């Protein structure tokens, strides 16, 4: 349905997307996962015909959108990372404006506007000016604008950035419903849990390159011989972390807030040693959980760093 072949993008001398290949089939939900600056937004811009690639080609139903972008644009819904709304208009007026751009009018435009307001949970705020909305409400309206014309494919570029947990949960529930209804979806994020929840297949991108691709299960097989120990403790210290790294040179030791994560080969049986090192460093461990591999572990294995680093 949508295919990218050897896509490359340079800005002056800087290569931000490096000869990537991607494919979306009808009805698939595909995740594009990577840290900020990985090249996700530039890739999205090329796939949606907003930016021409330096080299390579994008095809929509076997038609090149480099040469014929209208073939895709008529049936594409896109939710950009930045809010794209008119703050001085009401929610209803914003949807009516974007609906007309898509060619909707008359009774059909009215009906679709009301349907979308209901879907995004803003029917009771439809006559309120958008500048009075919270960040989460603006995000929901942004999504609504992309759905007005019943697109065949929806591209969402980090739609939950900078919003409160309640709004984020609402948006994820809405997107999950769209996926269950058969929407073809390309979803970019640097939140592992969102991509795991929504997507059938996942591309992992870092420094402009696709470094892995597959289903969640296929990707986790890359680290199937590994285990992750999650430690919670009083008085976590850098000395404790350094001692662990010295004792387990094949391990990856990283701290996330008040949790210490240690990834290492399954053949290791480390818990007794970890507790002994903790005692030597005046660290009191309150819990130790051995976890199955996650997508975060896959990313760490491939890049040597955590996704949000």
TrEMBL record:
InterPro entries: AAA+_ATPase (IPR003593), ABC_transporter-like_ATP-bd (IPR003439), ABC_transporter-like_CS (IPR017871), P-loop_NTPase (IPR027417). Keywords: ATP-binding, Nucleotide-binding. It comes from the Bacteria. Residues 2-232 form the ABC transporter domain. SUPFAM superfamilies: P-loop containing nucleoside triphosphate hydrolases. GO terms for molecular function: ATP binding; ATP hydrolysis activity. This is ABC transporter ATP-binding protein.
